[in-house]
Amino acid sequence: GDSVTQMEGPVTLSEEACLTINCTYTATGYPSLFWYVQYPGEGLQLLLKATKADDKGSNKGFEATYRKETTSFHLEKGSVQVSDSAVYFCAFLKAAGNKLTFGGGTRVLVKP
Amino acid sequence: GAGVSQSPSNKVTEKGKDVELRCDPISGHTALYWYRQSLGQGLEFLIYFQGNSAPDKSGLPSDRFSAERTGGSVSTLTIQRTQQEDSAVYLCASSLAPTGGTDTQYFGPGTRLTVL
User: Fold this and answer.
1) R_g over Cα of chain A
2) Which of A56, B54, B56, B77 is most exposed, with the fewest beta carbons within 10 Å of its own?
3) Chain A: closest CA distance from residue B56 (Å)
């Protein structure tokens, strides 16, 4: 069935370190792919998205590229800040569907 | 502009009681969604409304759960005879108009429900 697999956290790293969160999906067709972020005490916010193969979504220094051949959408940031500490969720939306299917979330803690 | 709002932000209830959770979508958004975020199950889809069409209720976990959307805007999620396993954060989202699966859903802050 449809699913999203993302690396389990917590991921702990120092400020200015590189961050990669792996995400792979299982779905029929060509879904749109999303990364949502949940900062402490706040709701889910869209971080970035990509709607077709080879598209790159980017926002706030984060990037992710839609890789159809590997059904992946890994999130990367070259230099993290303490303010990036949050839980990150990978998700997809099927072309004929209406519901987002989410991964389990990855907690990231950036230490000064 | 104003985002999705939900009320109450927190709700504590006793097992067996009924609860109502409210969602105000972004103005002009025709689609509205309810999700549930719990420790054991992660983020799960519950129900979807689009305009005047019949809602997609495929994610509702039991017949104790129901939702309605009045006038194409405000939505209420009702849980009857609450159980402890209903404890979770209930998230509402809205989107402009689902078009070919590219539409972005914008989430509210959620209602944290605790069933004692």
Assistant:
1) 13
2) B54
3) 9
